[in-house]
Amino acid sequence: MQNQAIKKLSPFKKPTQQQAEIINEAMTFIQAHIHDAKPAIFVITGDAGTGKSVVLSQLFYKLQQASRKETGPLANTQNYFMVNHPELLKVYRNIAGELPGLLKKNFQRPTSLINRMTKNQAHFDVGVIDESHLLLSQPDHYNNFYGHNQLISLLKLCHVLVIVFDAHQVLRLKTYWNQERLRTLLAPYPQKWLHLDQQFRMQADNSLINWIDHFTTDRKLLPLQTSFRLHYDFRVFSDAEAMRRAIVNQNNRVGLSRIVSTTGYPSTLDGGQHFITEGHFHLPWDQYNYTAPPWAEIPKTINEVGSIYTCQGFDLNYVGLILGPPVKLSADKQKIDIDSTKLTDGESFKHRADMADPKEIEMAKVQLTLNAINVLMKRGVKGLYLFAHDPALRERLCSEYHTI
After folding, report:
1. Which of 61, 82, 203, 308 is most buried, by CB atoms within 10 Å?
2. pTM here?
């Protein structure tokens, strides 16, 4: 997977016309504001799989080439690429290790850069942030962040930020963002917003992508056009073990195929193994990955269940998704319900002081769960396989979208 990820994010990959236009506009924006007294921010929005990371990778390479020139508006600038995702950071640093003009030290976790710059009373010129929806929006002592908001902390340390933002990929209360919150926060700063809308990851037609989007927003189960199967392998399974065997077969055939799951099963960061059991299906959750290769690149992880934390931002060829106990069919059998009492990812739903209203917290829990499902459903380039824990949902999915 690492080679595939590097190839996808290579600065030498030819961008689409839309991507090239955004890269050029970002460079123009940076040059216009690099010497301003007040920091400026360039925001790129887009759903999962629309090429946001590709744009940032190519933009940062151009930025670093310009910084090494003796003259010009960006000559001798000090710039950093940030991502608050350890698995994705490994890929970017590996890209830096293989390409001229890029240094691994220029790719950082936001907290590390904020703490170092603050301690040294230093500043930098341009920051490029992938997956900015993962930035902390409150203090987090566990991650050694003692400010109030990572985005504001970074704006105080630089001249220009370029970020990509997808509200549908917000996954934790401590990184709780939406477009309204982001626009309110950025109101005092010079800014420009652009949007990417072409889907690149999934080799699926609009019927299936639209089905996923409705499943994870208004929670409706739309009908599917039969033509979508001509381009994409979408299957619903009544048996999780049968789905696992199908994923193993695809992994043997084309590689990069894995089982993943939503929350709802035993999961505690205590160093021990925690299993997902569904009938004859019995596999452990992924463990924290201390190795350089990303989780899905490690061969033995075909015998683990991936989580949102190991898969977000990555491409798989085939993904088998288990919709866990919180994901249920509504009483009227017309839509999806999220039972927040069955959520087991305690780290994602820790209390935050600025969210005291129980209704707001409940709405946030539901939305974060739907966001995670959206991200997991859009991991597969060639195929998506589904199994639902809830018997009523499983029966509805199997009857409407064919049983395997």
Report:
1. 82
2. 0.77
